[in-house]
């Protein structure tokens, strides 16, 4: 297991930049890479990228990468992860980008590089981070993304000393991320399963619009296939139980992970938190009975982030509770499609709060998407045995030491 960094492509102006010595040593002088080893070299492309679908991505030379990041300066370091570092850069035309530099000799990094280039070059959506281009030069592998300026959802929810993320922003973020994931599942051919949906992979711009990022673990799903069987990889606290136990991956695995993100937005808690009392370390297991109780009794006090201090709309909160409860059902067949989640959350996010009409008080809000809401209610009120028969998180209560060695930002490798 290795910890992952804060998101690859987001600003870290209010976060420590990490180990400067490591940042400098990881970046080779561009003079060792001549023009025959640039990303545009036919010989290198044939040898190193014959299995990658290039799409419309732009080729960069290593010299260009070195220049736009000021020699991979530690002052431009945005974050470090298990497979490399991410730097802020500026293209000659003035466009800000984020450059992910994979570590030399990382077999997993090479696989992530190929997966990310092939998959992200296929997708174009306002709620998905865009790949600008990439570089292949000898052992160097670099990916270039649009720079997203306002860090990640994880940072705004869980960052030390951060101001409280207000409820309207949380609703907007949930709706935007849901749209991006629904596009991957239902509008791409072949379908794309992200496999690592989590708050640190949801980037935010200055308007708090969400962009889903990091496609290094993503998989293509042929329309004829009911599931993809793959090595289990993902992040503790977010993985669907059927995927964690069998490696059988479907779009509903992403739905479960998104349900965990909804729980984070509602409660302000991390998916796995070893500082919590014994038995409450897992957000999903802690929240399950509280979700049912809130829907049955209307009591939100135990579930809602206390930092909000009741500054939220109750109708919106109940809709999000229903959505989260449906998404994290143990049975994958009982979970909604992301397009259904989008329709429910859009009825929250698209209300104009500045025109004097409060969400929940307008006819539009109360009647919109009632069919989807009824479906969610039926899912939530279904057989509870399916939700409690098995827990992928039961290991947490049995071993505090294991829980303390694992955080919500730890991938299974």
Question: What would you say this structure looks like, in words?
Answer:
The chain has two domains: 2-146, Phosphorylase Kinase, domain 1 (2-Layer Sandwich); 153-412, Transferase(Phosphotransferase) domain 1 (Transferase(Phosphotransferase), domain 1), CATH 1.10.510.10. Helix 8 (251-267) packs antiparallel against helix 10 (314-327) and helix 10 packs antiparallel against helix 11 (338-349). The radius of gyration is 21 Å and the shape is globular. With 413 residues, the chain is α+β, with helices and mostly antiparallel strands. The longest helix is centred in the middle third of the chain and has 20 residues, at 167-186. The chain contains 16 helices and 15 strands. The strands form five sheets. The chain has a six-stranded mixed β-sheet with strand order 2-6-7-5-4-3, sandwiched between helices. A three-stranded antiparallel β-sheet has the order 1-15-13, with no helix packed on it. A two-stranded antiparallel sheet has the order 8-11. It is 37% helix and 14% strand.
What keywords describe this structure?
15 strands, Transferase(Phosphotransferase), domain 1, 16 helices, alpha+beta, three-stranded antiparallel beta sheet, Phosphorylase Kinase, domain 1, 413 residues, six-stranded mixed beta sheet, disordered C terminus, disordered N terminus
What is the secondary structure topology, with strand pairs?
Blueprint: E1 2-3, H1 20-25, H2 42-48, E2 58-59, H3 62-68, E3 77-81, E4 84-90, E5 96-102, H4 107-120, E6 131-137, E7 140-146, H5 153-158, H6 167-186, E8 191-193, E9 202-204, E10 210-212, E11 219-221, E12 228-229, E13 234-235, H7 241-246, E14 248-249, H8 251-267, H9 283-297, H10 314-327, H11 338-349, H12 363-367, H13 370-380, H14 385-388, H15 394-398, H16 400-404, E15 410-412
Helix pairs in contact: 6-8, 6-11, 8-10, 9-10, 10-11, 10-13
